[in-house]
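fyi for ur records
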Amino acid sequence: MKKYIFKVILLSVGALNSMAQVSNIRSIPINQTKDAGFNTSQYEAYEYTRVLPGPTIQKLPFRLLKPTQYSLPANVNTKYPLVIMLHGRGEAGSDNNYQLKWGGKEHLDAVNNVFKAGYTGPRTFDGFVLYPQEPYGQWTNSPYFANSPQLTSALSQVHDVIDSLIKNYRVDPT
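which gave:
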């Protein structure tokens, strides 16, 4: 009898966990209230939303740069690497633009240079670039990551976004 009750409890907890969280990713307009220092329009603007019981709603703005030849029919079976850039405290917020200030232009150039005729420079990257924006600029619950590897809700959401990109885009999971 105890084993039966234990199994029912485990099944119930599993069902609650699967219902406890609803999430989605949607495209949003670009908000350039803080200037990143270059034209960021090639980075697509998205927002990840997670609804928890309560209901608690958590939102994570992010920008995504796709490989230049991602949509070509010849590349339909190509898997691409993913670079994730986590900003510092100075780029925190919810404008979904300022997190591109450091490294955004360099990654944009590297992606755009992959198939540029006559380009012989060293910096090319044929893949996705993900720039999430944490509202408070702190990706862990401790200023000392080594002492407290507990993730903030924003970093946990980045994990969810990565899973979604692997599932819905041709991101190489290896």
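Strands lie at 22-27, 44-52, 56-65, 82-84, 128-132. thats all i got for now
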